[in-house]
Amino acid sequence: LVGGRLLPGDDGARAQFMFQDADGKRLTLYVGGVDARAARQGETAFQFSDEQGVARFYWTEDGAGYALAGALPRARLLDIAQVVYQQVSPR
Q: How far does CA 81 lie from the centroid of its chain?
C-alpha cells in the first residue's frame, strides 16, 4: 500500500487505495456505495474493460461497488480481483 484517499462521489464518499509491487507496477482499488436499485441483487459478476493499456475489473455486491485497475495482464489482474473479492465479501 503506497497511499489512499477519501473522495467525494455522487451518492456519498468513495475510497481509493493505491498499491505498488516490487517491480514498480501500480494498481488502484476504488470502493464506494452504489444505489441498490441499480445493482443486481444477489449477483456478483466481474466485468472487464481495457482502455489504453489500463485493465479494469469491476463489480458490485451488497450495495457497494469495486473497481480494480492497473497496467497488468488481464489474467494477473483477475487473480488479484478474486483475492480482493474474497477479502471484502461479507460472506
A: 7
Q: Which residue type is seen at 2?
A: V
Chain segment 49-90, per-residue pLDDT in tens? 998 889 999 998 878 889 999 999 999 999 999 999 999 876
pLDDT computed for residue 39 by the predictor = 57
Q: For position 48, what pLDDT does the model report?
A: 92
Q: DSSP readout, 10-79?
A: TTS-EEEEEEE-TTS-EEEEEEEE--TTTSPTT----EEEEETTEEEEEEEETTEEEEEEESS-HHHHHH
- The CA distance from 61 to 85, in Å, is 10
pLDDT recorded at residue 44: 65
Phi, psi torsion values for 8, nearest 5 degrees = -80, 150
CB 44 within 8 A of CB 59: yes
C-alpha cell at 87: 477479502
